[in-house]
Amino acid sequence: MLMLHGMFGFYRHSTPADGSAYSGDVHLSAAHIDPADPEFSLKIPGGDLSAVRTDNSTVTLYSYGMLDVEMTTADGQPLKLKTGKQAQLRFPVANSQRTGAPASIPMWHFDEAKGIWKEEGSATLNGTVYEASVSHFSTWNVDVPAKMATVKGKVTDACANNAPVKGMMVYLGQTAAVTDDEGNYTARVVAGMAFELSIGGRFSDGRTFSRNVPALNEGTTSTQDVSFACAPTLEGRFTLCSAATQLSHIRLEKDNKVIAAVFSDAQNRFRVFAPQGQTVNLTAFGPDGAVATRMVVMPNSNTVTDLGQIELCAPTPVAATEFTVKQGTQETPLKLEGGRAQSVNSASTTDCSISAGQTTLSLKFGGVATGVYQNSLVVLNLNGKTYISDKIQITVTKYGVMGELVEGTFSGELTLSGGTEKVEIKSRKFIVRRILG
Fold it and tell me: Across residues 212-237, what is the average pLDDT?
């Protein structure tokens, strides 16, 4: 659990974006990005741990944890601490990192404009928690600056005549890389520190791989090729009520944990791997939110089980997105149903789309997790006009897995495309179903 101390005494000194003094309720949103999370590398702001020190030298970082903290007024306007005031942040150290955790460690904040971490201040270890005082809020990181080494390799499929596997997510300690069309990948890692190279079933059609890699010397390159072994295979084809062929998503679970996630091809067929002799649950999600499930007992050999046709024709309703548009003194409440969220890049971005009649709402934010996103994009098509966000904040309170819901609120100011007319949005809630990513 993340911890923040000393905050409430500073609220009355917070100031809104226009610099005026603020007194009133303050909404605090904070998220802990834990290095012990198996998908830590996917949640790092900016996608990696490249950083600049105070002397302008470039380093890579080894993280002991991150905090994303934002404060807003009751109506969603951003706040900042008054000049000269500070708040204390506390970063819990993961169990696996407590041995050898340094007594003092540099602090880093993420510069969203330049997409890089910058050194600012330091934190002190108190028991199993790093403590630090900060004068502004953003994404903060407690990290050891380190020298770099390189790992490269190729991922192939022994079950397909050693064909290259493209689009595979390869984890290397706190770093991740994706294979190209030839199955090759390259990544920078921390020199002098052993790490685990792994591929999780969620991103590898259900097959997993892991290997311990010894510490590498600074500036050296290590080749780490991966060959996937064969495994029992599930196949099938979706039948959609719509005549059009559309992408569908398949999730495989065992003991309530996702072990594979794949998409159908242009013919609506799919293939996924599962452990021998195990009972698994397959859930399929259609492009309109339809859901179908199957329980399958896998054979004790590397054979193919064909599930035949699976119908995806009954979409599950999604609750309405509700918000108010203020134009001058007039406030118009709106309610849009049937929202969908698409994770364009599983490492960084989410797009949401909601529409009703001629009114459409699009929200885009740079993340795939709960948290507060200040530099977000909102586009509203209303009464034949298109408004685009100037200053907008999206707060994500729930980010479900494929087929589940993404929920939160959004608020801020939008400007008429090609004009000067402005509207203000106040959101009660947005709810969309996650259909990709």
Answer: 92
Strand bridging mode 233-240 / 15-16: unpaired
Just give the CATH number of 233-312. 2.60.40.10
pLDDT band for 4, please (50, 70, 90 cuts): very low
Residues 6+ apart with CB under 8 A from 388: 377, 378, 379, 414, 415, 417
What is the spatial distance between Cα 395 and Cα 1, in angstroms, rounded to a whole number?
19
Instruction: Give one word for 310, left, alpha or beta, with left for phi > 0 and alpha for psi -120 to 50.
Output: beta
Separation between Cα atoms, residue 336 and residue 318, nearest integer Å: 10
Portions of the chain given CATH number 2.60.40.1120: 148-228
132 and 89 Cβ atoms separated by less than 8 Å: yes
Kindly give the residue spans of alpha helices, DSSP state H, lying in 275-409.
Answer: none
Write the DSSP string, 78-145.
BEEPPTT--EEEEEEPPGGG-TT--SEEEEEEEETTTTEEEEEEEEEEETTEEEEEESS-SEEEEEEE
Phi-psi region of 202 (alpha: psi -120 to 50; beta: other; left: phi over 0): alpha
* Cα–Cα dist 314/291, whole Å: 7
Work out the average pLDDT over 161-187: 90
The order of strands in the sheet holding 169-172 is 175-178, 169-172, 195-199, 209-213
The two three-digit tokens of residue 250, written as one number: 């398949």
Backbone angles phi, psi at 333, to 5 degrees: -75, 140
Is residue 352 within 8 A of residue 379, CB to CB? The reply is no
Q: What CATH number does the domain located at 148-228 have?
A: 2.60.40.1120
What pLDDT band is residue 434 in, cutting at 50, 70 and 90?
A: confident
Does this model's pTM top 0.90?
Answer: no
List every span in the chain annotated with CATH 2.60.40.10. 233-312
**Which of 102, 75, 83 shows the shortest CA–CA distance to 91?**
102
